[in-house]
Amino acid sequence: MRPGQMLSYDYTVAKLFMFSTILFGIVGMLIGVIIAFQMAYPDLNYIAGEYSTFGRLRPLHTNGVVFGFLLSGIFSTWYYIGQRVLKVSMSESPFLMFIGKLHFWLYMILIAAAVVSLWAGVSTAKEYAELEWPLDIGVVLVWVLWGISIFGLIGIRREKTLYISIWYYIATFLGVAMLYLFNNMEVPTRLISGHGSWLHSVSMYAGSNDALVQWWYGHNAVAFIFTVAIIAQIYYFLPKESGQPIFSYKLSLFSFWGLMFIYLWAGGHHLIYTTVPDWMQTMGSIFSVVLILPSWGSAINILLTMKGEWVQLRENPLIKFMILASTFYMFSTLEGPILSIKSVNALAHYTDWIPGHVHDGALGWIGFMIMAAMYHMTPRFFKREIYSKSIMEAQFWIQTTGIVLYFASMWIAGITQGMMWRATDQYGNLLYSFIDTVVVLIPYYWIRAIGGLLYLIGFFMFAYNIYKSMSAPTISAEPKNASPMGGRLNVEVSNV
């Protein structure tokens, strides 16, 4: 590239993954709403025989949202952010462009195969690791292709300094690669016994060891996908959208290394009051509490980035999405350590408080941040305004109401459940049967389902707004920071 010549970024792969983000978001959240209503009205389990039962649909919901919606969002933002902060275009390397497209299409084939297999009931029955061994090999191939894209772009970059977002993307890649390989060490049953299906496998770990590895993986999958990759996005998109530099780059580095060191040891809190050694459970609790420090370090750094510019919350709905996402991140990373304290865990474990905790982070932190990222990228992808600011505002409030209804109902339901399970009479006999607790919780299940439905409606509004933006009025120059909303003029030019 000659001096003074502007880079022309190629968003082909980023756009493909943006479309898959929207598609899998709709599918995963729709199934989530269906199974939420099944909890409130169990007869819905039988509308399509075994294929509509809660047990078949729940893995589709979790895998659809985590590995469909969320991973697509991560890949899309990587192919956008990676080019811009490294100051290199995908079009400069035909090899990396080929790898990027192969990455997308192999990923789509894998997700389609995962949907079919899980719906058919083919599963290892391990949380977030339900896919059987042939699909695990496919996951590894997809991940390797993404790794080639990451390090390939880094290898041909013009910008010597690696911005903090790149660090977080690298951590996501390395962390998930290590976790996935170790947790999915399994042997095809037929290879050993000569019987059964070639699709079926058994873990190489047994008993408590299997549980330990599973939740070392399960908890850190949350860390390196739900947390690390989303921080990578907010550290790029919030400064770009607001026009404000990060409050403290040093604090971002401190939080990064704090998360890397502490997160890996906190998974033991998932196994409190089980057969694993007590010292492991205690270690999991302690590291979980210490984890508040780097987590809040990132969140406070993000909030302080808006110092003196809070007026943008009134003017720019994207800022609103990102700031509320960061607030939910603070909520979740405080609530998680509290739940890991043994005395609290004794009440909360196995109750509906846990899905409530997961969803205030998933819907508020992850969902809001990915949608804000898509809104920011859309005018830069298509050189057009965002179709409607009013729809964005309405979407924000509808989805926020949905999240509040969801987690508030599950908090109350979980505490009620835990208290009823522990209640005894004067002779030490349990006061309530299990079905007594289920009957009491039905009203809260309705509230949760309505909350989820509101969030899904908001997501449809988001998809419609993106779709209409693709044919909205054009902009003559790429916006420097704040994304152009319908009718906004005087956008500035930047090649960053």
From TrEMBL:
It is a multi-pass membrane protein. Its main location: membrane. Its EC number is 7.1.1.9. One of its GO terms (biological process) is respiratory electron transport chain. It is found in: Cell membrane. GO terms for cellular component: plasma membrane. It is an enzyme of class 7 (translocase). Heme b 1; low-spin binds at H61, H359. Heme b 2; high-spin binds at H357. Residues 13-496 form the Cytochrome oxidase subunit I profile domain. The chain crosses the membrane at residues 12-40, 60-81, 102-121, 133-154, 166-183, 215-238, 247-266, 286-306, 318-341, 361-382, 403-424, 444-467. The gene is ccoN. Signal peptide: none annotated. It comes from Campylobacter californiensis. Pathway: Energy metabolism; oxidative phosphorylation. Cu cation binds at H219, H269, H270. SUPFAM superfamilies: Cytochrome c oxidase subunit I-like. Keywords: Cell membrane, Copper, Electron transport, Heme, Iron, Membrane, Metal-binding, Respiratory chain, Translocase, Transmembrane, Transmembrane helix, Transport. It catalyses: 4 Fe(II)-[cytochrome c] + O2 + 8 H(+)(in) = 4 Fe(III)-[cytochrome c] + 2 H2O + 4 H(+)(out). This is cytochrome-c oxidase. Belongs to the heme-copper respiratory oxidase family.
